[in-house]
Design goal:
By secondary structure, the chain is α+β, with helices and mostly antiparallel strands. It folds into two domains: 71 residues, Glutaredoxin (3-Layer(aba) Sandwich), CATH 3.40.30; 107 residues, Glutathione S-transferase Yfyf (Class Pi), Chain A, domain 2. It has nine helices and four strands; from the N terminus they run E-H-E-H-E-E-H-H-H-H-H-H-H. Strands 2-1-3-4 form a four-stranded mixed beta sheet, covered by helices on one side. The radius of gyration is 17 Å and the shape is globular. The relative contact order is 0.14. InterPro entries: Glutathione-S-Trfase_C_sf, Glutathione_S-Trfase_N, GST_Omega/HSP26, Thioredoxin-like_sf. This is GST N-terminal domain-containing protein. Pfam families: GST_N_2.
């Protein structure tokens, strides 16, 4: 299998952590710059987005949560989907994916249009979404899905929070969400999380 990724994509990091946790050692990492119209990436995924997984059968999968679900089925080691009771895992994954999307688009818009893009209608919506998602996660820290063995929801949550710390450190979200900050500190001790740290 081939996984197209870079070191700063939160979406790619989710997939990479999943592959490590599932002990899938046959995943070949192909490092690309999605902004450079890399020919190999565009051949694998015409929309130029990462991550992209090319399976051993030559099938191309995109979108991080779909790739993660596929990887989960390749190894009996530790179900990341929480089967058969997967609803809570999917709910947490969706919530934290929304947080990732809002943070990522904030970073991209600042890169291309300056920080004043935060003041546009869409920029304000993104900022408000970040605040709401962080508070919802703070309220859920003590739930079973956050405190159980590692699962996809926890991975997406941990990556989203780490991405905000990496790209939007001025938010200092830990001051308002101390329980969530403590959770992230514990989660970040996992070997898979350390190995995939943003650079």
């Amino acid at each position: 299998m081939e996984l197209y990724l870079n070191t700063t994509s939160p979406y790619a990091r989710v997939v990479r952590i999943c592959a490590i946790e599932k002990q899938l050692d046959d995943v070949k990492l192909i490092w690309v710059d999605p902004w450079a119209d890399d020919n190999a990436l565009l051949t694998a995924n015409p929309n130029g987005k990462i991550p992209v997984l090319v399976t051993d059968r030559g099938e191309t999968l995109s979108e991080s949560l779909l790739i993660a679900s596929y990887l989960d089925g390749l190894s009996p080691t530790l179900s990341l989907l929480g089967a058969p009771n997967y609803t809570d895992v999917f709910a947490l994954s969706g919530l934290s994916q929304g947080l990732t999307d809002a943070a990522f688009m904030t970073v991209i818009n600042r890169k291309h249009f300056g920080k004043e893009s935060d003041s546009t209608v869409l920029g304000v919506r993104r900022q408000n979404a970040i605040v709401r998602c962080l508070q919802r996660l703070e309220d859920r820290v003590s739930t079973d899905v956050m405190q159980s063995d590692i699962n996809l929801g926890q991975i997406v949550t941990g990556v989203a929070l780490s991405y905000i710390d990496f790209r939007l450190p001025e938010l200092q979200w830990g001051e308002s969400q101390p329980l969530l900050a403590d959770w992230l500190t514990r989660f970040s001790e996992r070997a898979s999380v350390k190995e995939t740290a943003f650079t």
